[in-house]
């Protein structure tokens, strides 16, 4: 064989080997690229945030300053009619994180602190466990499940096995939270008894002393790191949960004379469920504190907005910017005097409606919104579909991906459940509400009471039309819709216990006690 032919063959072999290596490397690179395309998830939970925030689609509270929620809305799809599975931290978060509705699990209140021992939840895979199983690095900081930390009791209903790391720790999930001076939050001038946890007032310290500031600092550090696997980063902001105590500058944003009045109807409970929280409303009115409490809640929302802004700043500077899904949700709404209630724990709109935002690159169109009723329990199947996976069969929510893509989607009515009673000594039970496009229907089986509100004409839910002749078909339809999701319910017929119904269909609480006639020492629970 002559030397020229040998050189030619060797050259061809080298070309073949180089081509083969190039192909293998390209395949390897392709596989790495496919793995890297798996989107990261920034999972933001906000505690006790109602729909007062001011992205245009929400309507909001006039004068409330939330530029960073507006910024997120411009990036995302906003769900302006989203409702929680239960109007309290523990049952709502357990349902959202497991995907199992309270109607199925039985966790409708506070009676199951060890939720894993509940038969319906014994073997479920929670959201973070699902993502870890799919190859994600899972990190959490702050309040994701129901959580308390010093100076309150130490509680965290989250499990260890779903998280690669929990900040500050699984045992103490929230950094220490400074408080306003005792002279501010307990001036000793109030008439009646103030609950220990129910306080408000400015803190003469900077943002950096707040627990949420430190949680965001930790999250921002994580966003500056590189991980070999896709990232599921859960950030649990603890405000605007009470106590409504934040740095002075946030109170200065809302001079007392500029704080708007909240629309409240006198004797609003005369045709509705008379909850046992009225003494707190009376305490606030008797001490002329309505404006100050509303001011404090507005200030605390603006503090939360500032923390969200710090998180978004870090995100937009990070390597995760173009390949990360963001969801932001709240565990329930918040009453500010409506229905003679403060905080949550009811089945009316103020308690069940909460903000929900979804940003999914390549899927969502920034600045869009929908007012179709959806459930925050829909997050589990939605996130699963967005990463190309399928949620477990037991998950109760519906994927919102069709809505994110702008497609027509017939979402069923949204059900919320909670354990209620009329007073500290009363016998209560589980009650349920379903929110549809036009109506809210509520049923309290333990007293056989029904409520129906027409949201086309009565956004404040001031007139219970459940017993009017013109409502018969709507009531029948909503009973059926509720029964489809809560299949153990029964309607025995007859008048509700403790109520009368007039010939015109007006329902009235018998022996109704107007607020002004209540004793200031009425027991609160």
TrEMBL record:
<comment type="similarity">
    <text>Belongs to the sulfatase family.</text>
</comment>
<dbReference type="InterPro" id="IPR017850">
    <property type="entry name" value="Alkaline_phosphatase_core_sf"/>
</dbReference>
<keyword id="KW-0732">Signal</keyword>
<feature type="domain" description="Sulfatase N-terminal">
    <location>
        <begin position="39"/>
        <end position="388"/>
    </location>
</feature>
<dbReference type="Pfam" id="PF00884">
    <property type="entry name" value="Sulfatase"/>
</dbReference>
<dbReference type="GO" id="GO:0004423">
    <property type="term" value="F:iduronate-2-sulfatase activity"/>
</dbReference>
<protein>
    <submittedName>
        <fullName>Arylsulfatase A</fullName>
    </submittedName>
</protein>
<dbReference type="InterPro" id="IPR035874">
    <property type="entry name" value="IDS"/>
</dbReference>
<dbReference type="InterPro" id="IPR000917">
    <property type="entry name" value="Sulfatase_N"/>
</dbReference>
<keyword id="KW-0479">Metal-binding</keyword>
<keyword id="KW-0378">Hydrolase</keyword>
<dbReference type="GO" id="GO:0046872">
    <property type="term" value="F:metal ion binding"/>
</dbReference>
<dbReference type="GO" id="GO:0005737">
    <property type="term" value="C:cytoplasm"/>
</dbReference>
<keyword id="KW-0106">Calcium</keyword>
């Amino acid at each position: 064989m002559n030397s020229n032919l040998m050189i030619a063959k060797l050259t061809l072999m080298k070309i073949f080997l180089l081509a083969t290596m190039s192909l293998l490397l390209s395949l390897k690179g392709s596989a790495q690229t496919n793995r890297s395309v798996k989107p990261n998830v920034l999972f933001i939970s906000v505690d006790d945030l109602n729909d007062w925030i001011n992205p245009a689609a929400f309507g909001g509270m006039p004068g409330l300053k939330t530029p960073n929620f507006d910024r997120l809305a411009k990036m995302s799809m906003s769900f302006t009619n989203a409702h929680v599975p239960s109007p309290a931290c523990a049952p709502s978060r357990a349902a959202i994180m497991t995907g199992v509705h309270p109607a199925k699990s039985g966790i409708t209140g506070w009676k199951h602190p060890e939720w894993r021992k509940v038969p319906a939840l014994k073997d479920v895979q929670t959201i973070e466990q699902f993502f870890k199983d799919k190859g994600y690095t899972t990190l959490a900081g702050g309040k994701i499940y129901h959580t308390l930390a010093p100076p309150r009791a130490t509680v965290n209903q989250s499990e260890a096995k779903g998280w690669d790391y929990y900040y500050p720790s699984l045992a103490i999930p929230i950094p220490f939270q400074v408080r306003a001076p005792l002279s501010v939050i307990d001036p000793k001038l109030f008439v009646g008894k103030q609950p220990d946890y129910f306080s408000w007032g400015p803190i003469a310290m900077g943002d950096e002393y707040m627990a949420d500031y430190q949680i965001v600092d930790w999250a921002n550090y994580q966003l500056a790191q590189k991980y070999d696997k896709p990232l599921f980063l859960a950030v649990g902001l603890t405000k605007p949960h009470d106590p409504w105590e934040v740095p002075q500058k946030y109170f200065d944003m809302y001079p007392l004379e500029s704080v708007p009045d909240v629309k409240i109807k006198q004797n609003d409970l005369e045709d509705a469920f008379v909850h046992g929280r009225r003494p707190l409303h009376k305490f606030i009115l008797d001490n002329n504190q309505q404006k100050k409490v509303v001011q404090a809640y507005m200030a605390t929302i603006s503090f939360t907005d500032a923390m969200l802004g710090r998180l978004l700043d870090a995100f937009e500077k990070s390597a995760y910017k173009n390949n990360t899904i963001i969801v932001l949700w709240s565990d329930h709404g918040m009453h500010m005097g409506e229905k003679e209630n403060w905080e949550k724990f009811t089945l009316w709109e103020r308690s069940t409606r909460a903000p929900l935002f979804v940003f999914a690159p390549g899927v969502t169109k920034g600045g869009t919104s929908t007012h179709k009723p959806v459930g925050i329990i829909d997050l589990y199947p939605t996130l699963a579909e967005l990463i190309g996976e399928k949620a477990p069969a037991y998950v109760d929510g519906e994927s919102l991906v069709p809505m994110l893509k702008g497609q027509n989607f017939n979402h069923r009515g949204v059900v919320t459940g909670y354990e209620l009673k009329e007073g500290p000594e009363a016998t209560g039970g589980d009650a349920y509400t379903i929110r549809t496009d036009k109506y809210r229907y509520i049923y309290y089986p333990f007293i056989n009471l029904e409520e129906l509100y027409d949201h086309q004409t009565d956004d404040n839910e001031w007139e219970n039309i459940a017993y009017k002749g013109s409502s018969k078909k709507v009531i029948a339809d909503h009973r059926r819709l509720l029964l489809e999701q809560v299949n153990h319910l029964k309607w025995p017929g007859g008048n509700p216990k403790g109520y009368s119904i007039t010939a015109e269909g007006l329902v009235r609480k018998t022996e109704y006690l107007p607020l002004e006639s209540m004793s200031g020492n009425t027991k609160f629970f």
